[in-house]
Amino acid sequence: MAAGRRNLFSEPDEATDIDLAPMIDCIFILLIFFIVTTVFVEEPGVDVAKPDASVDQPLERTSIIIAITADNKVVYGGREVGVSGVGARVKQLLNKDDLPVIIQADEKADHGVFSDVWSEVKNAGARKISLSTRVD
Amino acid sequence: MARRVVSDEDATRIDLAPMIDCIFILLIFFIVTTVFVQEQGLQASKPDAAAHVSLEENVSVAFEITPDNKIRYEGDEIPLADVTSRVKAAVTDPEIPVVIRAHEKSDHGTFVAVWNAAKLGGAQALSFNTVD
């Protein structure tokens, strides 16, 4: 009788024991996928209406992105830096790693501002400078 | 005897719950930080000050963008749709440089449109400079 009671108590315990190994396998696969695809790029975080072009090519994911808004504000990493602030920031980032630079200019932005930002980036020592266009 | 075997099995079982907790936290962090953004763009080039003078002399194809976003070629105002055919006619050799001279008050969108049209016309040595 005593043995029978023990069985009664221990059996439900073993029955609720779920094998977690397959779930852990799945989670690991997801985890590795997300680790591999994550790129830590500082997005400008402003709304930019990019111009359209048919001859554009995909750009590198890991880049320094500088945005120029329709009212000619120069933005990097969510902060307005101004044309004069671009050079120092890009130089600082290029010291760590030789990254390409992408200029996201609004189609309503002045060409003069774009050109000034271009010169600043060029003088900071960037080797590859691209201008961003609409993704189609 | 049978109980000893059972308790031995129990002893070798590792509690996976804390590890799963950790993995879930990592997983959520990476899901949240992942951005699937594919940037598209153009590689533009601008002659630097030193090259500027020598380039100016043998430029045969130069487009001008006025402050009010009009496109001028050899002094005449042309529509955007004509840029491609003009470039095609003028660029007999891909080495011939094509320059876009944009006024600093013109729109960036116009500049990109002209750049795109010139590229479609077969201009390989394409560059821009800014006038004020």
Shape of chain A: elongated
Number of helices of chain B: 5
* Tally of DSSP β-strands of chain A: 6
Helical content class of chain A? 40-55%
User: What's the alpha carbon Rg of chain B, rounded to whole Å?
Assistant: 31 Å
Q: Helix and strand string of chain B, N-terminal first?
A: HHEHEEEHEHE
Name the largest protein-protein interface in this structure. A-B, 53 and 44 residues
Task: Write the CATH fold name of the largest domain in chain B.
Answer: Nucleotidyltransferase, domain 5
Largest sheet entry of chain A: 5 strands, mixed
- Count of domain modules of chain B: 2
Order of helices and strands of chain A: HHEEEEHEHE
The name of the CATH architecture of the largest domain in chain A is 2-Layer Sandwich
Mean pLDDT reading of chain B:
78
Strand order of the largest sheet of chain A: 4-3-2-5-6
Biggest β-sheet of chain B: count, sense, barrel?
Answer: 5 strands, mixed
Structural class category of chain A = alpha/beta
User: Mean pLDDT across all residues of chain A, rounded?
Assistant: 82
CATH class of the largest domain in chain B: Alpha Beta
Could you please describe the fold and organization of this structure?
The complex is a heterodimer of chains A (136) and B (132). Chain A has two domains: 2-37, no CATH class; 64-131, Nucleotidyltransferase, domain 5. Chain A has four helices and six strands; from the N terminus they run ααββββαβαβ. Chain A starts with a helix and ends with a strand. In chain A, strands 4-3-2-5-6 form a five-stranded mixed sheet, covered by helices on one side. With 136 residues, chain A is α/β, with parallel strands linked by helices. Chain A is 43% helix and 16% strand. In chain A, strand 5 (101-105), helix 4 (111-123) and strand 6 (129-133) form a beta-alpha-beta unit. By secondary structure, chain B is of the alpha/beta class. Chain B folds into two domains: 2-33; 49-131, Nucleotidyltransferase, domain 5. Chain B contains five helices and six strands; from the N terminus they run H-H-E-H-E-E-E-H-E-H-E. In chain B, strand 2 and strand 3 form a beta hairpin. In chain B, helix 4 packs across helix 5 (108-120). Chain B is elongated. The termini of chain B are far apart. The mean pLDDT of chain B is 78. At the A-B interface, helix 2, strand 1, helix 4 and strand 6 of A face helix 2, strand 1, helix 5 and strand 6 of B.
